[in-house]
Amino acid sequence: ERSVGVRLRRELRGLMFGWSDSKLDRGLDAFDKREWRRARRLLEDALQEDERANGFYHLGILYWRGLGGPRLIRLCIGGNLIVTGLLFAASLAGQAGPAAIIVAIVPIFIASGILLPTATVTALHLHGRMAGTASALMGTASFGVGALASALVTAFADGSELPMAGVMALLGLGAFAAARIAFRSGDHDFEEMRAG
Predict the structure, then answer these.
(1) What is the CA 22 to chain-centroid distance, rounded?
(2) Which of 39, 68, 140, 148 has the highest CB neighbour count under 10 A?
(3) By the 8 A CB rule, do 79 and 56 touch?
(4) Burial 110-121 (b: 16+ CB within 10 A, else e)
(5) What is the pLDDT of residues 47-104, one digit of tens each?
(6) Contacts with 111 (C-beta within 8 Å, 6 or more apart), sequence order
Protein backbone atom coordinates (compact mmCIF):
# COMPACT_ATOMS: atom_id res chain seq x y z
CA GLU A 1 0.00 0.00 0.00
CA ARG A 2 2.77 2.41 0.92
CA SER A 3 4.89 1.61 -2.15
CA VAL A 4 1.85 2.16 -4.38
CA GLY A 5 1.42 5.60 -2.80
CA VAL A 6 5.10 6.38 -3.31
CA ARG A 7 4.92 5.37 -6.98
CA LEU A 8 1.73 7.38 -7.56
CA ARG A 9 3.22 10.44 -5.92
CA ARG A 10 6.35 10.14 -8.04
CA GLU A 11 4.38 9.69 -11.28
CA LEU A 12 2.01 12.58 -10.51
CA ARG A 13 4.89 14.93 -9.81
CA GLY A 14 6.57 13.85 -13.02
CA LEU A 15 3.42 14.31 -15.10
CA MET A 16 2.22 17.57 -13.57
CA PHE A 17 5.47 19.44 -13.00
CA GLY A 18 8.09 17.58 -14.95
CA TRP A 19 9.89 16.86 -11.70
CA SER A 20 11.89 13.77 -11.11
CA ASP A 21 12.77 12.41 -7.72
CA SER A 22 16.06 13.52 -6.32
CA LYS A 23 18.57 11.09 -4.86
CA LEU A 24 17.43 12.28 -1.45
CA ASP A 25 13.79 11.40 -2.25
CA ARG A 26 14.83 8.01 -3.59
CA GLY A 27 17.01 7.45 -0.53
CA LEU A 28 14.14 8.32 1.82
CA ASP A 29 11.82 6.02 -0.14
CA ALA A 30 14.38 3.20 0.12
CA PHE A 31 14.63 3.90 3.87
CA ASP A 32 10.84 3.66 4.20
CA LYS A 33 10.94 0.32 2.34
CA ARG A 34 13.77 -0.90 4.61
CA GLU A 35 16.16 -1.30 1.71
CA TRP A 36 19.10 -0.34 3.94
CA ARG A 37 22.04 -0.73 1.55
CA ARG A 38 20.30 1.16 -1.23
CA ALA A 39 19.13 3.86 1.19
CA ARG A 40 22.64 4.34 2.55
CA ARG A 41 24.16 4.60 -0.91
CA LEU A 42 21.53 7.05 -2.18
CA LEU A 43 21.62 9.21 0.95
CA GLU A 44 25.43 9.38 0.90
CA ASP A 45 25.37 10.39 -2.77
CA ALA A 46 22.57 12.93 -2.24
CA LEU A 47 24.37 14.58 0.66
CA GLN A 48 27.50 15.02 -1.46
CA GLU A 49 25.45 17.12 -3.88
CA ASP A 50 23.05 18.91 -1.53
CA GLU A 51 23.35 18.94 2.25
CA ARG A 52 19.92 18.59 3.85
CA ALA A 53 19.09 17.94 7.48
CA ASN A 54 16.54 15.25 6.60
CA GLY A 55 19.15 13.26 4.68
CA PHE A 56 21.75 13.57 7.44
CA TYR A 57 19.15 12.51 9.98
CA HIS A 58 18.21 9.31 8.13
CA LEU A 59 21.82 8.49 7.28
CA GLY A 60 22.71 9.02 10.94
CA ILE A 61 20.03 6.54 11.95
CA LEU A 62 21.49 3.93 9.60
CA TYR A 63 24.96 4.44 11.07
CA TRP A 64 23.71 4.56 14.67
CA ARG A 65 21.67 1.40 14.35
CA GLY A 66 24.58 -0.31 12.64
CA LEU A 67 26.59 0.40 15.80
CA GLY A 68 24.06 -1.47 17.93
CA GLY A 69 21.88 1.38 19.24
CA PRO A 70 18.91 -0.75 20.36
CA ARG A 71 21.19 -3.11 22.31
CA LEU A 72 22.71 -0.08 24.01
CA ILE A 73 19.24 1.01 25.13
CA ARG A 74 18.56 -2.42 26.64
CA LEU A 75 21.92 -2.45 28.42
CA CYS A 76 21.46 1.03 29.94
CA ILE A 77 17.87 0.42 31.04
CA GLY A 78 18.78 -2.93 32.61
CA GLY A 79 21.77 -1.39 34.39
CA ASN A 80 19.64 1.51 35.55
CA LEU A 81 17.07 -0.88 37.00
CA ILE A 82 19.76 -2.80 38.90
CA VAL A 83 21.43 0.33 40.31
CA THR A 84 18.16 1.99 41.36
CA GLY A 85 16.96 -1.28 42.88
CA LEU A 86 20.18 -1.60 44.91
CA LEU A 87 19.92 2.01 46.06
CA PHE A 88 16.31 1.47 47.15
CA ALA A 89 17.26 -1.73 49.01
CA ALA A 90 20.13 0.08 50.76
CA SER A 91 17.74 2.92 51.67
CA LEU A 92 15.23 0.47 53.16
CA ALA A 93 18.02 -1.08 55.22
CA GLY A 94 19.16 2.36 56.37
CA GLN A 95 22.57 1.94 54.71
CA ALA A 96 22.32 4.55 51.96
CA GLY A 97 24.34 7.52 53.10
CA PRO A 98 25.72 10.28 50.87
CA ALA A 99 28.56 8.09 49.56
CA ALA A 100 26.16 5.32 48.47
CA ILE A 101 23.92 7.86 46.76
CA ILE A 102 26.85 9.37 44.84
CA VAL A 103 28.10 5.92 43.84
CA ALA A 104 24.60 5.08 42.54
CA ILE A 105 23.92 8.43 40.87
CA VAL A 106 27.08 8.47 38.73
CA PRO A 107 26.22 5.35 36.65
CA ILE A 108 22.58 6.49 36.48
CA PHE A 109 23.68 9.84 35.01
CA ILE A 110 26.03 8.09 32.58
CA ALA A 111 23.22 5.76 31.47
CA SER A 112 20.85 8.73 31.14
CA GLY A 113 23.39 10.57 29.01
CA ILE A 114 23.49 7.58 26.68
CA LEU A 115 19.78 6.78 26.86
CA LEU A 116 18.18 10.15 26.20
CA PRO A 117 19.70 10.82 22.76
CA THR A 118 19.61 7.13 21.86
CA ALA A 119 15.95 6.74 22.80
CA THR A 120 15.14 9.92 20.89
CA VAL A 121 16.80 8.62 17.73
CA THR A 122 15.03 5.28 18.11
CA ALA A 123 11.65 6.96 18.47
CA LEU A 124 12.26 9.43 15.66
CA HIS A 125 13.34 6.83 13.13
CA LEU A 126 9.76 5.61 13.11
CA HIS A 127 8.50 9.12 12.35
CA GLY A 128 11.31 10.56 10.24
CA ARG A 129 9.13 12.76 8.08
CA MET A 130 7.57 14.27 11.24
CA ALA A 131 10.79 14.40 13.24
CA GLY A 132 10.13 17.85 14.73
CA THR A 133 6.74 16.86 16.12
CA ALA A 134 8.05 13.57 17.47
CA SER A 135 11.02 15.33 19.08
CA ALA A 136 8.74 17.89 20.73
CA LEU A 137 6.55 15.10 22.11
CA MET A 138 9.62 13.30 23.48
CA GLY A 139 10.86 16.50 25.16
CA THR A 140 7.46 17.20 26.69
CA ALA A 141 7.19 13.65 28.02
CA SER A 142 10.72 13.82 29.45
CA PHE A 143 10.11 17.09 31.29
CA GLY A 144 6.67 15.88 32.42
CA VAL A 145 8.08 12.71 33.97
CA GLY A 146 10.79 14.77 35.69
CA ALA A 147 8.18 17.13 37.14
CA LEU A 148 6.02 14.22 38.30
CA ALA A 149 9.04 12.51 39.92
CA SER A 150 9.94 15.71 41.79
CA ALA A 151 6.36 16.06 43.01
CA LEU A 152 6.32 12.45 44.23
CA VAL A 153 9.59 12.82 46.13
CA THR A 154 8.30 16.03 47.73
CA ALA A 155 4.97 14.45 48.65
CA PHE A 156 6.65 11.58 50.49
CA ALA A 157 9.59 13.56 51.93
CA ASP A 158 10.47 12.44 55.44
CA GLY A 159 14.02 13.73 55.81
CA SER A 160 15.62 10.53 54.53
CA GLU A 161 16.77 9.40 51.10
CA LEU A 162 14.06 6.72 50.94
CA PRO A 163 11.46 8.73 48.96
CA MET A 164 14.08 9.69 46.34
CA ALA A 165 15.41 6.14 46.09
CA GLY A 166 11.86 4.75 45.89
CA VAL A 167 10.84 7.09 43.07
CA MET A 168 14.09 6.33 41.21
CA ALA A 169 13.46 2.59 41.54
CA LEU A 170 9.85 3.02 40.43
CA LEU A 171 10.94 5.01 37.35
CA GLY A 172 13.65 2.44 36.60
CA LEU A 173 11.04 -0.32 36.74
CA GLY A 174 8.70 1.71 34.53
CA ALA A 175 11.44 2.32 31.95
CA PHE A 176 12.30 -1.38 31.96
CA ALA A 177 8.65 -2.37 31.42
CA ALA A 178 8.18 0.23 28.66
CA ALA A 179 11.32 -0.96 26.88
CA ARG A 180 10.20 -4.59 27.08
CA ILE A 181 6.85 -3.69 25.52
CA ALA A 182 8.42 -1.49 22.84
CA PHE A 183 11.06 -4.01 21.80
CA ARG A 184 8.64 -6.93 21.93
CA SER A 185 6.46 -5.21 19.31
CA GLY A 186 9.28 -6.02 17.06
CA ASP A 187 11.65 -4.17 14.87
CA HIS A 188 13.75 -7.19 13.89
CA ASP A 189 15.87 -5.55 11.25
CA PHE A 190 18.87 -4.64 13.45
CA GLU A 191 21.22 -7.24 12.04
CA GLU A 192 20.07 -6.53 8.51
CA MET A 193 20.84 -2.82 9.01
CA ARG A 194 24.25 -3.62 10.44
CA ALA A 195 25.02 -5.71 7.36
CA GLY A 196 23.84 -2.87 5.10
Answers:
(1) 28
(2) 39
(3) no
(4) ebeebbeebbbb
(5) 777 776 666 666 776 766 665 666 777 888 899 999 999 999 999 998 888 888 888 8
(6) 76, 77, 79, 80, 83
Are 52 and 43 contacting, i.e. CB atoms less than 8 angstroms apart? no
Distance of CA 178 to the CA centre of its chain: 12
CA gap 15, 120 in Å, rounded? 38
Tens-digit pLDDT profile for residues 88-146: 999 999 888 888 888 888 998 888 887 777 777 666 666 666 777 877 888 898 899 99
Task: Report the distance separating Cα 41 and Cα 58, nearest Å.
Answer: 12
Q: What is the pLDDT of residues 159-185, one digit of tens each?
A: 889 999 999 999 999 988 988 887 776
